[in-house]
Amino acid sequence: MRAEARTTLAASTLIVGVTAVGLIRVIFHLRAIRANLSATTAAVQAVADLTSTVPERLSSVNASLQPVRDFCETV
Fold first, then answer.
1. Which residues, including other chains, have CB under 8 Å from residue 55's CB and lie 6 or more apart?
2. Using only C-alpha atoms, what is the Rg of the chain?
3. Which residues, in sequence order, are CB contacts of 10 under 8 Å at separation 6+?
């Protein structure tokens, strides 16, 4: 095998190897990002549940205050 062919094979192997390492690093970064996004989504959902509107959370209180609401509408 001639020296030019060996040099070409070595250079192509090096390029493919560096590219493969870079792609593997991208895969690990994307997995970490997916885990962070899942945690953030869960936290946002928890905040949304804790800050839901009063009619959804206190329907019995609203039913008890119906006479007061009716009186206020007549005034």
1. 62
2. 32
3. none
Nearest-angstrom CA–CA distance, 66 and 63: 5
* Phi/psi at 33 (5° precision): -65, -40
| Contact residues for 54 (Cβ-Cβ < 8 A; gap 6+) | 62
CB count, 10 Å around CB of 57? 13
Can you tell me the distance from the alpha carbon of 71 to that of 16, in angstroms, rounded to the nearest whole number? 79
The string of pLDDT tens digits covering residues 20-32 is 999 999 999 999 9
Structure tokens at 72: 């206020």
**Is the four-CA dihedral 65, 68, 74, 75 of positive or negative sign?**
negative
Which token pair is 51? 């800050």
